[in-house]
């Protein structure tokens, strides 16, 4: 079933569906404002008004006037000269989301392009045309110029693409600039990171609850009265999710009375505080990216009354900040998860066999799986360093402050992959710990998580190759199978 998207009123739920491959259509009514903006631009051109990037050069060359006979060539030259990206191609699902965001932005009717340009983008989506867009080359200001140039070239019959191509179009005044100017690449990459972070947070709650059960930890720290006294919304929601995951556990009841431990280590006890703070960051990023996905981010813009204004909506600072806070959340979810893995390995803290295996010494159990998790945590910590504070001037200092949003968003995918593997290792360890407490059973959601793990990896009775087990459970993490067990 196709997603019918209304420019300016698109939801993150719709964009998730689009990212997953749902067909796309625009809601009726977008053509009139688009045509009106193109007409307003044509009128101003006839008046001979200097318009940036329409009848002038670009960047530092903005003071150079272009004669009427060179306007079409100007737009084509822009695409060719700016297609300077390098590196591996962006994934096809990200490119598809970029095209959708670009079509939505142009369909707002503030960019001065013709209806045919938007229709050409929609045709590429319908044909499953997949432009090859190198990942590197944007600093996240003046728009994602280089990557969007590689996309736009396909519209004019040039560039690289997989799949069938639409009939090429001839660009009118400003249309090349409108296609290149905008934050659609950085936004699509950040949205991809957002979707992964949302799933990872739910998975982390499931993994944390499973580890708590495996370590015979207490659910008292998740009591609603504790979190109400602090008032942090994410913390309150995370605690509620943990209570729901552990409600009705026979294993928990078995040690409610007589357990000599007064308090669990922080990695168990402070889960609502850490996961809740991460949840608040993810929600903040979602709000920022939701607005950006709906936005018009090129320049100059045709505003109400037909006036054409130059501004800076292409500066992707909101996207850079959103990506940075998503990176912080992902790094912390992995960091506390690795500490729970280490706790389960330690018989002094967990009361379980060392490294979660019988016949320790002869068997090493999960010893090196924890080392792998530690390596991934260290990598994510390095990747989490903020990118939004790092600006390098470009275009002979005309573009003297840039956001670095595209690089900030690009690093989210490897961070999400690292986090999926950390969570997979924790889920494997938690399931192994639960096995040692049989025949006692946990709550229904925890037992469902245990069954998912065991569907991909058998109980660890003696040493075997660990990597396939991690890969199998990580695939379930990426597919959202564990995330579906946690309600937020």
Could you give the order of the helices and strands?
EHEHHEHHEEHEHHHHHHHEEHHHHHHH
Number of strands: 8
| Secondary-structure-derived class | mainly alpha
| Number of helical regions | 20
Level-1 CATH class name of the largest domain: Mainly Alpha
Shape: elongated
Most strands sheet: 2 strands, parallel
Short description:
The chain is mostly helical.
Structural summary, described in words:
With 488 residues, this protein is mainly alpha-helical. The protein folds into two domains: 3-182, Orthogonal Bundle (Fumarase C, Chain B, domain 1); 190-485, Fumarase/aspartase (Central domain) (Fumarase C, Chain A, domain 2, Up-down Bundle). The protein has helices at 12-19, 31-46, 71-82, 92-106, 115-127, 145-155, 175-180, 184-214, 224-228, 233-246, 250-254, 266-269, 271-293, 317-345, 347-350, 367-383, 405-410, 412-435, 444-456, 467-478, and strands at residues 3-5, 24-26, 86-89, 130-131, 134-136, 161-162, 301-302, 308-309. The strands form four sheets. The chain has a two-stranded parallel ribbon with strand order 1-2. Strands 3-5 form a two-stranded antiparallel sheet.
Q: Strands, helices and their partners?
A:
Layout: E1 3-5, H1 12-19, E2 24-26, H2 31-46, H3 71-82, E3 86-89, H4 92-106, H5 115-127, E4 130-131, E5 134-136, H6 145-155, E6 161-162, H7 175-180, H8 184-214, H9 224-228, H10 233-246, H11 250-254, H12 266-269, H13 271-293, E7 301-302, E8 308-309, H14 317-345, H15 347-350, H16 367-383, H17 405-410, H18 412-435, H19 444-456, H20 467-478
Parallel strand pairs: 1-2
Antiparallel strand pairs: 3-5, 4-6, 7-8
Helix pairs in contact: 3-6, 4-5, 4-8, 8-10, 8-13, 8-14, 8-18, 8-19, 10-13, 13-14, 14-16, 14-18, 16-18, 18-19, 18-20
């Amino acid at each position: 079933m196709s997603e019918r998207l209304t420019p300016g009123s698109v939801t993150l739920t719709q964009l998730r569906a689009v990212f997953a491959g749902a067909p796309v259509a625009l809601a009726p009514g977008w053509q009139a404002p688009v045509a009106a903006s193109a007409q307003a631009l044509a009128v101003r051109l006839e008046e001979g008004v200097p318009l940036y990037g329409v009848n002038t050069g670009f960047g530092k060359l903005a003071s150079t006037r272009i004669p009427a006979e060179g306007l079409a060539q100007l737009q084509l030259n822009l695409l060719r000269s700016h297609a300077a990206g390098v590196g591996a191609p962006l994934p096809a699902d990200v490119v598809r989301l970029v095209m959708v965001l670009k079509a939505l932005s142009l369909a707002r009717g503030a960019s001065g392009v013709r209806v045919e340009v938007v229709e050409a983008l929609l045709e590429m989506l319908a044909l499953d045309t997949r432009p090859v867009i190198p990942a590197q080359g944007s600093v996240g200001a003046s728009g994602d110029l280089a990557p969007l140039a590689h996309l736009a070239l396909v519209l004019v019959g040039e560039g690289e693409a997989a799949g069938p191509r639409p009939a090429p179009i001839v660009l009118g005044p400003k249309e090349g600039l409108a296609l290149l100017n905008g934050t659609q690449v950085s936004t699509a990459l950040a949205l991809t990171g957002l979707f992964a972070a949302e799933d990872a947070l739910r998975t982390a709650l499931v993994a944390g609850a499973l580890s708590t059960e495996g370590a015979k930890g207490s659910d008292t720290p998740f009591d609603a009265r504790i979190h109400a006294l602090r008032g942090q919304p994410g913390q309150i929601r995370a605690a509620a999710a943990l209570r729901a995951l552990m409600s009705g556990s026979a294993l928990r009841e078995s040690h409610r009375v007589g357990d000599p431990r007064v308090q669990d280590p922080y990695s168990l006890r402070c889960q609502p505080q850490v996961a809740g703070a991460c949840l608040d960051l993810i929600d903040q990023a979602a709000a920022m990216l939701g607005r950006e996905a709906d936005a018009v981010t090129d320049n100059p813009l045709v505003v109400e009354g037909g006036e054409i204004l130059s501004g800076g909506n292409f500066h992707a600072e909101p996207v850079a900040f959103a990506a940075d806070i998503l990176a912080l959340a992902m790094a912390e979810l992995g960091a506390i998860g690795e500490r729970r893995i280490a706790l389960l390995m330690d018989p002094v803290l967990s009361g379980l066999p060392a490294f979660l295996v019988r016949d320790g010494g002869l068997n090493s159990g999960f010893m090196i799986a924890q080392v792998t998790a530690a390596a991934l945590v260290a990598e994510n910590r390095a990747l989490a360093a903020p990118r939004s504070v790092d600006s390098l001037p470009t275009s002979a200092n005309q573009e003297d402050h840039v956001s670095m949003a595209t690089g900030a968003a690009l690093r989210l995918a490897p961070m999400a992959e690292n986090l999926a593997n950390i969570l997979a290792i924790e889920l494997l360890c938690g399931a192994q710990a639960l096995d040692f407490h049989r025949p006692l059973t946990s709550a229904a959601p925890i037992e469902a998580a245990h069954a998912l793990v065991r569907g991909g990896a058998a109980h660890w009775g003696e040493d075997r190759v660990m990597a396939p087990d991690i890969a199998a459970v990580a695939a379930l993490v990426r597919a959202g199978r564990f995330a579906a067990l946690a309600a937020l």
